Fold:
Amino acid sequence: MKNVFKKVGYGLSTAAAFVGAQAQAAIDVTAVGTEIEAAGNAASSTGTYVIAAVAAVCGVGLIIGLIRRI
Structure:
């Protein structure tokens, strides 16, 4: 029974290696890199907006706190 599992494992690993190599050949790496870079830029600008919004909320909270003390 151990031999059967071992042979099946070898077969699956060989098939996975072959399929992986074929899948890698079908992927346009340059286009993927460009899309990842564009998504990174979009995420960076979104992060900037989030930080600005949090800072604005904190600023408004400080101003309201100061007005309440007066």
Summary: The chain is about 95% helix and 0% strand. Residues 2-69 form one domain.
